[in-house]
Amino acid sequence: MTTVRLNGIDFNYQRSGSGPRLLFLNGSGGTLAESAPLLAFLARHFDVAAFDQRGLGRTGLPDSPYAMADLAADAAALADHLGWELFRLLGVSFGGMVAQELAVTAPDRIERLALLCTSPGGAGGSSFPLHTLVDMAPADRAALYTRILDTRFTPEWLAGHDADRALTAGLVERSAPQKSDQVLNGEALQMAARSGHDVYERLPRVNCPTLVAAGRYDGIAPPENSAAIGKQIPNAELRLFDGGHLFFIQDPAAFPEIIRFLTAD
């Protein structure tokens, strides 16, 4: 991992693998450390670059609120630093929101675009307001998050599906430890930016091949939001997979299809 100063902030980033250039944008609160297995997988197919977004992981905390446009500018600045005039772009959940903002701001730089479990905002629909979970009691927050992660995840469903039960238990365990004030501030600033996301009317500016992928049972970024993205972006492909917000982990068919799309000429 390496540090570079971009837009007045010290960013922690990494680059690995070989193949087509791919910029990866992480989900809400996601860090390079947490995404290591996924990034290692992507590095088998791509020259992949990823970074801790502002205020998260080992990247510096900004001294004031920011907007989605600032996050897209950060991603573009990293690409500039790497000397990438053209690249492919993969955004997951919150990262998909940033990817949309970047793709409508600098459409001629994106060769291929994959948007996973995300929302356009505005008339196209917004993702679940995760900032409302922050002040909930831990047990209530875990229960609600489980229900929106995959709308099938009732206690009865989880009792009969070991893999899904292990998946939710891992996520609850991840959120359980006490967080420092800096981490909490970074996450709060990201949630504030997320709440203002609305790129829907600008999506027709995207002019590259685009894959929009969603889980059929996603309660955070419902599949109808992905359908709205697919209708706005010219010639976009919409794919639904078995699973919820983490369909790309739940459905073994998902990532092979995503990789095939992103590696195509």
TrEMBL record:
UniProt KW keywords: Hydrolase
Q: Name one GO molecular function term.
A: hydrolase activity
Superkingdom of source: Bacteria
* Alphabetical list of InterPro entries matching this protein: AB_hydrolase, AB_hydrolase_1, AB_hydrolase_fold
Q: Where is the AB hydrolase-1 domain?
A: 20-252
Q: Does Hydrolase show up as a keyword for this record?
A: yes
Q: What is this protein called?
A: Alpha/beta fold hydrolase
